[in-house]
Amino acid sequence: MTQKQVNTSKAVLALEEETGRFLAAWMHVRQVVQAANFNRFHRAGLSATQFMILNVIPDEGLTLTQLARKLNLSPASLKITVDSLEDRGLVLRRKSDKDARKVDILNTKEGTRLKNTASGEFHRFMAELFTAMSGTERQGLLTGLERMVDLSPLQNGDNLQELTTPHADAAPQAKRSSRRSVAG
């Protein structure tokens, strides 16, 4: 093996190790964030999906299809969750100003208040973590993550479903046997 091949092999191994370290750290950060958020939406009597819905609805609202695309969930499964939020007075549906054939989903004042309270708590939690990091560490983290977004073919999060696996609720269902087991 030539020196160039050895150097290339070492570079590939180093990149694989860095990728593994990044993925492990990323998964751990996701767990920390999910745990921190769980307490916030649980106290408000919300499921994780309900909490996410309140947080992704912009002021101008969006349709169920747009919401499903943002959350990478099926419109059918989200409809039930949006119905429950509407029953609680946290979201409302209204005819779209842009297209009368469409219905927009918007946060109510109470939905916005709940979202802002939980988001403020989460922001303070993240600020505490950032405060414990040095300025160089924070800048390196932000620069690296922003660069990853820039390199992504889905820079603004649109069409995220193109990169993901099919929805769990769209997975083929196994046929159930009509035979019953008999206890012997």
Order of adjacent strands in the largest pleated sheet: 1-2
What low-confidence regions span 5 or more consecutive residues with pLDDT below 50?
Answer: 163-184
* Total DSSP helices: 6
User: Quick one: biggest sheet?
Assistant: 2 strands, antiparallel
Share of helix among residues? Answer: 55-70%
What is the terminal-to-terminal distance?
66 Å
In N-to-C order, the SSE pattern is HHHHEEHH
Strand content bin: 5-15%
Q: Kindly identify the CATH topology.
A: Arc Repressor Mutant, subunit A
- Please tell me the overall pLDDT: 82
CATH class: Mainly Alpha
Category from helices, strands and their pairing = mainly alpha
Strand elements, count: 2
Estimate nothing, just give the exact number of structural domains.
1
Considering the protein shown, what is the CATH homologous superfamily? Winged helix-like DNA-binding domain superfamily/Winged helix DNA-binding domain
Radius of gyration: 22 Å
Sequence-ordered SSE layout with sheet pairings:
Blueprint: H1 3-43, H2 48-56, H3 64-71, H4 75-87, E1 91-95, E2 103-107, H5 109-131, H6 135-151
Antiparallel strand pairs: 1-2
Helix pairs in contact: 1-5
Describe this entry's structure for a reader.
- Keywords: DNA-binding.
- InterPro entries: HTH_MarR-typ, MarR/SlyA-like, WH-like_DNA-bd_sf, WH_DNA-bd_sf.
- It comes from Tunturiibacter lichenicola.
- One of its GO terms (biological process) is response to stress.
- It is a single chain.
- This protein is mostly helical.
- The protein has a single domain, classed as Arc Repressor Mutant, subunit A.
- It is built from six helices and two strands; from the N terminus they run H-H-H-H-E-E-H-H.
- The chain has a two-stranded antiparallel ribbon.
- A hairpin with a 7-residue loop joins strand 1 and strand 2.
